[in-house]
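Sample entry (234 residues):
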Amino acid sequence: MKKIQDDIISYREMCDIENVQTLQRGMNFRMNQKYSVILMSQRSNAPYIDKVHADGLTIEYEGHDVSRITNEPAYNPKQYDQSEKLPSGKLTQNGFFIKAVKEFKKSMANPELVKIYEKVFPGVWSLKGYFDLIDYRNVRDEKRNVFRFILKLSNRQENYDSKVAKIEHTRLIPSEVKREVWKRDDGKCVICGDTKNLHFDHDLPFSKGGTSLSTKNVRLLCMRHNLQKSDKII
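Predicted structure, serialized as tokens:
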């Protein structure tokens, strides 16, 4: 079954969707020949600083640290600048994403398509959607340099099937709203109580004046009731 923006999935389901045994890296350039994959988190204990911009469409994603190069307990990758290349000269995952941005800006072809999953709770993930990788920055963060990648919600929906594509998705639901809604609705569809194939749904669609910023307008629906509702929206 294809998954769409704001669908709720388990870690195992996420791995199965991407046809891999495990997903350990946060950045996965061209995991699928059609797109890259990013795992993000805005939880307070997340190892990287990821955020959604005020426009509700743009994600700023922090690049990843150098791999552990020693078994010394005192080693801390957060003390080192994030790297574009390995000592061998090969590109890191940061480097592959940077190269894609440069090629996009040089040729003005389609930007790299990136599929983003967001960690809501341990074991609970949400498909954030498909995004265009449009820019990056190298910034000073406290005592080191880090990469910040800029991705914007994509209009390219070729990976969604025609029926599901009818569902209105125009603004990203903030992570804190998703967490509150999940707790409030007890991880179940508010209509039938189903715990499978769940989706974060706008009670009143954004196009009709609804908001993504309030838990009052977001609820959990199963796939069946989500699609039934979308068929009634005119």
